[in-house]
């Protein structure tokens, strides 16, 4: 496997990124290429990611997969890649530029909008809801928050968003945040946890205060799946992280070989709950 | 005989005065007063704040940081600093996960493994500091990174769940007090915090270890010249502190029903802030565990209160920063007056 | 009879310094063996090796005739060697009792401490030394003198067979020195061998049996203390005959008033202090330790705040809020604790000498004028005969006396004309002492005003044109040079405001009740 | 006469020896040797490492941390510590963004605003430390949180882009050197780092400010009692350090073509690590800017090299932790020997 494709992601510690990584590694095996996968510790570290991209370029890769924390900040390096004729494939939420030859991504805003629709129907179209989001400044955090909030504002005038707080995806912090939100809002009907860590935090918080609310999560993981099966969590949005990783590498290989491929690879998002969690089509998207 | 009597009288009088005006006691009073003011303020600002549930929530939210802060107190009184408490906590949680979930040992073994592992890591920091003379800041900064990496390596960057040992989450989450007083379902984590704090306080004030903790922080060279094996005692102190971090690791793992390998960094600053707000001096030689506990509560009350008031998060950070400075400044003012 | 300790041909080098060259001496049981020598002669270094703090490069040490190695303080203790260090080594946040028994705390089970016994033992020790210190006071709250006493108590508590005392009396007053000597004689009678280091010549005659003189790291000679004239010892120390003429007393000083202090008060430490000093005058401040002389100097200098009081400098009333204000007004303060308040020990000789005047040696944009700084340092190294390999030597590595000279040089370099000298000769050898006296005299002759605080009465008597005596924060009297004798000064020094007996027994004493005889 | 001559000889010999073995110089040699060993090792391990592009990448990756480390060096030599350098950098970047993008001022004004803002924030920390006697750790911890919050508040938690001032990104990204020597397109950020380092080094060694920085770190009370207005100088030192953080803020904003308000926390630890690896003592009184720069390079070479070797990320953390400890330990060993 001499063809080397580094993937620079937005993170590496979260389960979501581990799932993307496993998809990429699967594709690497299937297509007989070598991949590496790395990302900064937090989604705030824009410059660290740029340094990673620079180091990746220095390794003379055949192609590069890139999930930009900030598209603009990366443009000089992406131009360099273009000049060196290294194909760039964007993944996750995409890169705001025409340099990437393809984008394998989830539309986070739309996905969060779907979560809003589900929340609305589960709480009967009216009442107070809140959000626990993982990050205030990162693209995914902003898109999911705004996707949810805008959908509620546009379609459900009787639903009020009473609080939006940020827990860095830290389960403990998100738990404490959830408890304060519940405490401050005795009539709260539901909370949307915008990534895995936030969602688990919301679950823990509600459980510790013994409050029955509608919990909607994002992504999967062992705990979320168990909570959905037991009914503690109403449901969650899943992306297709393994698919994102796989398709990114696949597109990169095609680009290297000069084959044709779609410019937009929508890896999709799905609502899953108790009813369809074991549906093989959904189950394939979920990770532990 | 008369000597003894007069001395006793003298002592009781002096200790009363001391309790009221002494540096340490006064500091505690001041810190406690700030805490009361905060609680009262938030209570007035929001009707939801003073509800039992929320107060219990604050107690519970303090448990992990409180235990870490107690661990830091020892080290800080010696004049050192420990930046690794947060990631050591995580590392111990992961070790517990490995023993219980991966290897299927009974809970007792897992608990012991976490504590021993904490003590060993602490002793390693202590060894670096005492024998290899690496400054505490650097030794524990290195340990922080080392342990962060190792937690990820050992766990395979995945959380380890305690689903096969359903008794494990009970450690922190159940409520012994709630069995006795059903209206007070204070979770065990809080109980454990208090047990740790009381034990740590007794050790600090009434044992040889405690004596050396203060002595080292006051003038290490003098202790060494007195023929005390300062290296040995430093290693012991860091080991004890590490074991306490192990307790924090068990608490957090039990509460989250999982060992989250990526967690922990940043917790050290909260712990240090709690210690200092509680009146312990960063230059060593002075401090109390009780102060640290009050400091921890000040931080969690603040955090909880601002959240209850739905203050925007960026402003929460601003306010917390200002309060930390003010709390320490008030302490300094008070001490300067006397 | 084999000697208690025999030191044979010890060598010791520090980077850049050969501290000991083939030093030898013996200590017999039951003798007080004085070690004399100029600053930097190697006395402390030799003793630190016996105490296990340094190791020697070559040579050997025999204890009871058997060669030993002394790996650390613990090993020294095991051999029965105890030491009172020249520099205080105390834990300020711990109490006196806790300091004395550090490492040997009375314990109960499970490592729990027996504080009652700890305090009881310490109290017994203090009683035996005839001092009144509450075992439960924090050492940081004690004066330097009392801290020194705690150090001595700690060394005594080891019941060592060999007790090394490195300038134990540097901070003590006459009465305390007397008490200490009683203890030393008692120890001697019990067969303890004592090494006694001091720069005070009279103590030599009072307490020592034999004396070993050191010079430049070598042991020059060992002589009987009583029968050898002081002049002989001094000439051995300095390697030449010392001109030993008492400077003639200067008659009444007629200069203008340089400094006037009116009604200076702060809490109980300073009460209504008023005095003035003229240009060309040396004003002596006498008093027992803790009388408040240091506090006066610090208050005038702006180092501590004051409650009330006026300060007039050269006829103008000034507000002095900080040392910077004072220095700007031409006032200098030479602290009694050079290590803590005088030196930047990690920096070199040049930086220390220029510390107060560096602003005068700068070029445009704040750049330092290095040639001028170097010349300045070299000048004072030469004129004060500071013993240092170069002006780039780190101050920490100089001997105590040479460090003191550095601090003096700092103020001379600043050219201040009102100078407070707080114990200027503490820990300084005879040769250097004479130089400093000469220096003070010439500074006065140049028309500067000098306030000299000293606990050594001969020094006060010899140098001062006028003497103020303090007691418990007040000025209890003023003497002209003609009136002053040791007796008149001591009378004033113990004249407390409300007559409650002597300063030592009364006002400061803690009531411990009657002392049971052991 | 003969005495004088021999003394002169003595001195010159001694100064030669000093240059080779003295604490400061020896430390630099050692740190530099470690750097060379690292570079050589990675060069042998991977053919990609020693390529011009990658070396330039390393230089560029060092720029921001290097400047922050220089800022920290001053503070650390005084015996203080500054935890706020990272968030202060971000805050200055945001301020530049506000002036340039929101308010449309010319670039010069934006640059000046960032530098002045850095100096003011630094002076505030200095004021807290000098006048209010808050310990540096706490004062700057508070400032760190305060500034983090304020950056988010001011920017509205969104990055501020410099799209309307296309000349701004040029500051750090263009290459003056590249114009002159086309084969060496070293970006200006690196040039700026070197200018800052040289200037900081000269100030430290040859000015009154530098003299007081060392003196304060050696014995602050003695300096005060020598008639120096220590409070004033401390505030100046923190202000200068803050202004240097402002430069770092301009560099990072220019490089990212945006002010990223959430960035910055955690950077202080890298900066402190670089300072200490470079041989500056955390207890104050000793240090060099050159050492700090070498320390910064050791960290970035390490980070880059491990990435080039595709070492798993968790192991990168482990290795970095170990290397930090070893680097400082080596320094201590060397110093103990002499
Ligand atoms: N740790 C050290 N490193 C380098 N030089 C040292 C060290 N300790 C002592 N010296 C040097 O060794 C010599 C002997 O010093 P020592 O302290 O033994 O003198 P001393 O006779 O006790 O003088 P004093 O009467 O002033 O206390 C001096 O020149 C001193 O500068
Ligand atoms: N750090 C301190 N804490 C509490 N009290 C102190 C402290 N330092 C000095 N004092 C008290 O202040 C008073 C004056 O002490 P000061 O040091 O000025 O005396 P002095 O006359 O200079 O004697 P010395 O010979 O010891 O220098 C004494 O009562 C002393 O106990
Ligand atoms: Mg000596
Ligand atoms: Mg005095």
TrEMBL record, chains B, D:
Q: Does the keyword Transmembrane apply?
A: yes
Q: How does it sit in the membrane?
A: Multi-pass membrane protein
- Provide this UniProt record's keywords sorted from A to Z: Cell membrane, Membrane, Transmembrane, Transmembrane helix
Question: Domain of life of the organism in this record?
Answer: Bacteria
Indicate where this protein resides in the cell: Cell membrane
**Principal subcellular localization:** membrane
Q: Which spans are transmembrane here?
A: 20-44, 56-76, 83-105, 111-130, 137-156, 235-256, 289-309, 315-332
Question: Record keywords: Cell membrane included?
Answer: yes
Name the InterPro entries on file.
ABC_transp_permease
| Gene Ontology terms, MF aspect | transmembrane transporter activity
Q: Which GO terms describe its cellular component?
A: plasma membrane
Q: What is this protein called?
A: ABC transporter permease
UniProtKB/TrEMBL annotation, chain C:
Q: Which Gene3D superfamilies match?
A: P-loop containing nucleotide triphosphate hydrolases
The cross-references to InterPro entries, in alphabetical order and at most eight, read: AAA+_ATPase (IPR003593), ABC_carbohydrate_import_ATPase (IPR050107), ABC_transporter-like_ATP-bd (IPR003439), ABC_transporter-like_CS (IPR017871), P-loop_NTPase (IPR027417)
GO MF, one example: ATP hydrolysis activity
Among Pfam families, the record links this protein to: ABC_tran
Gene Ontology CC annotation, any one: plasma membrane
Q: Which CDD domains does the annotation name? A: ABC_Carb_Monos_I, ABC_Carb_Monos_II
**Cell membrane among keywords:** yes
Q: Does the keyword Transferase apply?
A: no
**What sequence ranges are listed for the domain ABC transporter?**
5-241, 253-497
SMART domains recorded for this chain? AAA
Q: Member of which family?
A: Belongs to the ABC transporter superfamily.
Name of this protein: Sugar ABC transporter ATP-binding protein
What is the species listed in this Swiss-Prot or TrEMBL entry?
Answer: Siculibacillus lacustris
């Amino acid at each position: 496997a001499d063809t080397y494709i580094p993937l620079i992601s937005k993170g590496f510690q979260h389960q979501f990124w581990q799932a993307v990584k496993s998809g990429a590694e699967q594709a690497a095996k299937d297509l007989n290429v070598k991949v590496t996968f790395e990302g900064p510790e937090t989604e705030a570290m824009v410059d660290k990611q740029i340094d990673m991209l620079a180091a990746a370029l220095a390794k003379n890769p055949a192609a590069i997969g890139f999930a930009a924390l900030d598209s603009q900040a990366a443009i000089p390096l992406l131009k360099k890649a273009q000049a060196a004729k290294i194909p760039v494939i964007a993944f996750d939420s995409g890169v705001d530029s025409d340099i990437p030859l393809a984008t394998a991504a989830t539309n986070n805003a739309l996905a969060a909008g779907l979560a809003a629709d589900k929340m609305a129907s589960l709480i009967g179209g009216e009442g107070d809801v809140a959000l626990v989001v993982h990050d205030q400044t990162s693209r995914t955090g902003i898109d999911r928050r705004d996707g949810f909030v805008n959908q509620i504002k546009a379609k459900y005038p009787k639903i009020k968003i009473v609080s939006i707080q940020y827990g860095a995806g830290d389960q403990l912090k998100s738990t404490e945040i959830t408890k304060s939100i519940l405490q401050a809002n005795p009539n709260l009907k539901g909370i949307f946890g915008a990534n895995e860590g936030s969602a688990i935090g919301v679950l823990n918080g509600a459980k510790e205060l013994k409050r029955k609310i509608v919990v909607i999560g994002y992504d999967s993981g062992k705990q979320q799946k168990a909570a959905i099966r037991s009914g503690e969590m109403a449901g969650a949005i899943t992306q297709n992280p393994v698919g994102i990783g796989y398709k990114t590498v696949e597109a990169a290989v095609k680009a290297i070989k000069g084959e044709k491929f779609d410019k937009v690879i929508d890896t999709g998002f799905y609502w899953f709950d108790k009813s369809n969690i074991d549906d093989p089509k959904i189950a394939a998207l979920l990770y532990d | 005989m008369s000597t003894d009597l007069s001395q006793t009288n003298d002592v009781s009088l002096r200790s009363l005065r001391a309790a009221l005006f002494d540096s340490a006691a006064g500091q505690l009073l001041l810190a406690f007063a700030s805490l009361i003011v905060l609680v009262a303020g938030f209570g007035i600002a929001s009707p939801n704040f003073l509800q039992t549930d929320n107060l219990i929530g604050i107690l519970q939210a303090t448990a992990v940081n409180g235990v870490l802060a107690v661990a830091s107190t020892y080290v800080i009184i010696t004049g050192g600093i420990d930046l690794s408490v947060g990631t050591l906590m995580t590392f111990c949680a992961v070790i517990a996960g490995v023993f219980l979930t991966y290897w299927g040992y009974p809970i007792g073994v897992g608990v012991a493994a976490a504590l021993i592992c904490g003590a060993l890591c602490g002793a390693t920091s202590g060894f670096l500091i005492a024998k290899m003379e690496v400054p505490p800041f650097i030794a524990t900064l290195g340990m922080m990174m080392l342990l962060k990496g190792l937690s990820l390596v050992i766990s395979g960057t995945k959380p380890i769940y305690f689903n096969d040992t359903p008794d494990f989450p009970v450690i922190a989450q159940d409520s012994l007090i709630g069995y006795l007083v059903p209206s007070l379902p204070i979770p065990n984590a809080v109980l454990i915090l208090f047990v740790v704090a009381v034990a740590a306080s007794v050790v600090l004030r009434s044992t040889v270890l405690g004596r050396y903790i203060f002595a080292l922080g006051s003038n290490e060279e003098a202790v060494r010249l007195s023929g005390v094996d300062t290296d040995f005692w430093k290693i012991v102190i860091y080991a004890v502190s590490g074991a306490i971090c192990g307790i924090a690791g068990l608490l957090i793992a039990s509460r989250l029903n999982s060992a989250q390998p990526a967690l922990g960094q940043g917790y050290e600053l909260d712990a240090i802030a709690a210690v200092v707000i509680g009146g312990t001096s960063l230059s060593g030689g002075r401090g109390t565990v009780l102060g640290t506990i009050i400091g921890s509560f000040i931080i969690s009350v603040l955090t909880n209160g601002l959240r209850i008031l739905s203050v925007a998060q960026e402003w929460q950070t601003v306010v917390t920063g200002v309060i930390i400075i003010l709390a320490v400044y008030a302490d300094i003012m008070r001490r300067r007056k006397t | 009879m084999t000697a208690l300790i025999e030191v044979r041909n010890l060598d010791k080098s520090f980077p850049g310094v050969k501290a000991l060259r083939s030093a030898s001496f013996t200590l017999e049981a039951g003798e007080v063996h004085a070690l004399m020598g100029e600053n930097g002669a190697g006395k402390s270094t030799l003793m630190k090796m016996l105490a296990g703090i340094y190791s020697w490069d070559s040579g050997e040490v025999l204890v009871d005739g058997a060669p030993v190695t002394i790996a650390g303080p613990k090993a020294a203790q095991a051999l029965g060697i105890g030491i009172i260090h020249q520099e205080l080594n105390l834990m300020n946040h711990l109490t006196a009792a806790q300091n004395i028994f550090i490492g040997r705390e009375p314990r109960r089970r499970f490592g729990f401490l027996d504080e009652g016994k700890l305090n009881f033992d310490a109290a017994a020790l203090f009683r035996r030394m005839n001092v009144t210190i509450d075992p439960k006071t924090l050492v940081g709250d004690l004066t330097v003198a009392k801290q020194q006493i705690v150090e001595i108590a700690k060394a005594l508590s080891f019941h060592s067979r060999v007790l090394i005392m490195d300038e134990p009396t540097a901070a003590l007053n006459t009465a305390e020195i007397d008490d200490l000597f009683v203890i030393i004689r008692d120890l001697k009678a019990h067969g303890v061998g004592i090494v006694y280091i001091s720069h005070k010549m009279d103590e030599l005659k009072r307490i020592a049996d034999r004396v070993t003189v050191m010079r430049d790291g070598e042991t020059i000679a060992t002589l009987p203390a009583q029968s050898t004239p002081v002049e002989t010892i001094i000439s051995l120390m300095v390697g030449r005959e010392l001109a030993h003429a008492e400077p003639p007393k200067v008659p009444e000083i007629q200069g203008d008033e340089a400094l006037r202090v009116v009604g200076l008060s702060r809490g109980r430490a300073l009460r209504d202090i008023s005095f003035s000093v003229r240009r060309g005058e040396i004003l002596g401040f006498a008093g027992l330790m803790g009388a408040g002389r240091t506090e006066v100097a610090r208050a005038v200098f702006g180092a501590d705040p004051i409650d009330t009081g006026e300060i007039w400098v050269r006829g103008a009333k000034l507000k002095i809020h900080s040392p910077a204000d004072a220095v700007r007004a031409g006032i200098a303060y030479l602290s009694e604790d050079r290590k803590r308040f005088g030196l930047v020990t990690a920096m070199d000789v040049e930086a220390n000498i220029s510390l107060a005047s560096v602003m005068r040696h700068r070029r445009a944009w704040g750049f330092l004028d290095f040639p001028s700084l170097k010349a300045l340092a070299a000048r004072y190294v030469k004129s004060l005969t500071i013993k240092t390999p170069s002006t780039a030597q780190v101050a920490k590595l100089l001997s105590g006396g040479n460090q003191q000279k550095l601090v003096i040089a700092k103020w001379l370099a600043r050219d201040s004309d009102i100078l407070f000298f707080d114990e200027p000769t503490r820990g300084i050898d005879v040769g250097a002492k004479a130089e400093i006296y000469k220096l003070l005299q010439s500074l006065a002759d140049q028309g500067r005003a000098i306030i000299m605080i000293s606990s050594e009465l001969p020094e006060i008597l010899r140098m001062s044109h006028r003497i103020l005596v303090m007691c418990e924060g007040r000025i209890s009297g003023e003497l002209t040079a003609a009136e002053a004798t040791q007796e008149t000064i001591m009378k004033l020094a113990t004249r407390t405001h409300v007559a409650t007996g002597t300063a030592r027994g009364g006002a400061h004493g803690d009531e411990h009740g009657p002392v049971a005889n052991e």
